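call fold(seq) -> tokens
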Amino acid sequence: MNARHISLVFTAPLLFLLAACWGGSNFEPPLAKTNPSPTQRYEITVELVDPPADVKNISGAAYFSIPDVICMPTPDRIAGYTPGSRYEKKFPLVPTGNNTYRGHIFLDWPIDEDYYGLGVCKWELAYVDATVARSNEFLQITRLSSAELLSLSDATAYCREEMRDKFDKTCFTPSDPARAEELGLISYLVKVKPSRTN
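ret:
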């Protein structure tokens, strides 16, 4: 048996195993159904402090994921790959006067389900976004984390009054007082306040 034949004998099974690993990684991400009768309701209040005159509207979106991936397949054992999980539910933020807007979300919007025969996948809230649309078609986003929502903690963000371009969409929540003071000179405030309603 020559060296070339030996190489083929050992290489072929390895290529087969690699192909099996990579070829099996085509699992579709879980597609959540929306609960028709959710009960875990939280109210979201958004207040704009000294906003610019060109604010057109404000909208909300809640994002969910499956943090415990034990219910999902891991076809690529080498890289530890699992299908991604994402569920987005948009909700209106209705003006109530004095630059204040209100809407609500439900923590049980997505229905937990056994997607792959490996056990029930449990969806959890990742974060809530409040998006301010400006007349120049630019957007500015303030984010409330799931931890802030569950602890009923407010989120206050500094959003630029003058947006330089579409990449200025992120509003900042600085922990450094000096940075907050600096941003305060060129920004308006967006305050997002959660509350439990049942």
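The first helix runs from residue 3 to 23.
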